[in-house]
Amino acid sequence: MILIGLFPLFWFFFGLYEQDAEHRVCEPMSLNSLDWEEFKWLYKQQDSTYSADSVASYVFIRVNPDGTRETQEIEQLHQPWTELLQSEIDSFELKRDSLIKRIHYPYRLRYTSTTRNKKQQLALQKRGFSKSFISFHNFGLAADGAIARKGRHLRRGAIYDQYGVKAKEIGLFWGGDFVGFPDPGHIQAFYNSAKLLQKYPDLALEYEPFKNAYERNYFSKLDIGKEELVEDSRDLLIEMNKLRENKPCACSQAIPFPSSAADLQLKPNAITVLANLKEKYIFIQKGSFGYFYTTGRWKLN
User: What is the pTM of this model?
Assistant: First the structure.
């Protein structure tokens, strides 16, 4: 009788999880205001992996409901994450380096990969060496360890299990516990990306360009009954939905070129985002061109 009663309860809570991870959609509506920080999110949320390496600045243009026009130009979309995360990075590096002394002769531990930039991470993801578009490596909060015995590199074995146990003893998380894609050499500072965003919500700005990709991966696995492989993606989507619900957005379907934007000029080596709150449209530059969208707010589908 107890087991029978638990099954409906299990599916009830699982259904809530699934619902919270549903697609987030941009519901068309007018915006009475839009602050300069929200311009950054509008740009990032277009699910674009366009390389901004050559971008010298970002130009934000706001046409207010009363028709007045304001412009702000900034050099970067966010503060350097190393400043925000410095205490976390220092703590992780201290624990990471202490593991070297915990692996004893005849074994020797060294780290083959620590901090990566975005290009390196995306290259690994495209080649199938990583499942993540954004990694803890990008924030300096992960490392990949390699263990050798008498000069011979070991790819697997009981020593990596010991490495994982020792890592968890000092408060780190071990890649050998990953479901579907175990990585016994990997260690990181947080359980998953959702936990990171719960503590540092501003970091969601880095995940936003890939939200559609995380959704496609999650729902494709859900459709074939493999949801256990994408629990981290589910948790990440739930957290991202929480953070952005009811916030301003550019609706996904492009609209015709508005006549009032005829004087819009794009600057070399700059990205322009124009929000016309009077006429309810947003322009977002992509490369040397761009698209116009209806203004709206994020809602769960």
Answer: 0.84
